[in-house]
């Protein structure tokens, strides 16, 4: 069974940092592109970032560029999202998601349960 389990969310002050993790199991993690997607309270899903199977190529939504860094450790079957300079508008449930193949195409077939990030003073 394919599983994605996010962790690392919590309460952080504006300007602070958090690192999210996503533990993957049930598939060959290193063969697939992965993404982070978030959902702010009361709003729709917002794509955050993605990277290809090797991690060599990354993509970011414009508002996250320079603040967020996506990475992966294929030996540990884990995806990461380092978030710096957090703002109140970054408050959301963050999901990791598995793509259909090794390269990012926008199609995400498996999602985790999400981890809540709250940015507030």
Textual characterization of the structure:
This protein is an all-beta fold and 121 residues long. Strand 4 (34-39) and strand 5 (46-51) form a beta hairpin. The mean pLDDT is 96. It has no helices and 11 strands. The protein has strands spanning 3-7, 10-12, 18-25, 34-39, 46-51, 58-60, 68-73, 78-83, 92-99, 108-111, 115-119. The strands form 2 sheets. Strands 2, 4, 5, 6, 9, 10 and 11 form a 7-stranded mixed β-sheet that branches. The chain has a 4-stranded antiparallel β-sheet with strand order 1-3-8-7, with no helix packed on it.
Keywords:
121 residues; mainly beta; four-stranded antiparallel β-sheet; 50% strand; globular
Concise account of the structure shown:
With 121 residues, the chain is an all-beta fold. It has no helices and eleven strands.
Radius of gyration: 13 Å
Number of helical segments with 4 or more residues? 0
First-last Cα distance: 40 Å
Count of β-strands: 11
The amount of helix comes to under 10%
| Mean pLDDT level | 96
Poorly predicted ranges (pLDDT <50, ≥5 residues)?
none
The secondary-structure class comes to mainly beta
Q: Specify the overall morphology.
A: globular
- SSE pattern, N- to C-terminal: EEEEEEEEEEE
Strand content: over 45%
Largest sheet: 7 strands, mixed
Ordered list of secondary-structure elements with their pairings:
Elements: E1 3-7, E2 10-12, E3 18-25, E4 34-39, E5 46-51, E6 58-60, E7 68-73, E8 78-83, E9 92-99, E10 108-111, E11 115-119
Parallel strand pairs: 2-11
Antiparallel strand pairs: 1-3, 3-8, 4-5, 4-9, 5-6, 7-8, 9-10, 9-11
């Amino acid at each position: 069974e394919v599983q994605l389990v996010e962790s690392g969310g919590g309460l952080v002050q504006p300007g602070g940092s958090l690192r999210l993790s996503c533990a993957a199991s049930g598939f060959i993690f290193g063969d697939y592109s992965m993404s982070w997607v978030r959902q702010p309270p009361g709003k729709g899903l917002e794509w955050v970032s993605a990277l290809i199977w090797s991690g060599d190529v990354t993509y970011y939504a414009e508002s996250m560029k320079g603040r967020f860094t996506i990475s992966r450790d294929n030996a540990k079957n884990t995806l990461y999202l380092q978030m710096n300079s957090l703002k109140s508008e970054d408050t959301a449930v963050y999901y990791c998601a598995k793509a259909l193949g090794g390269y990012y195409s926008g199609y995400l077939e498996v999602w985790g349960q999400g981890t809540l990030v709250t940015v507030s003073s």
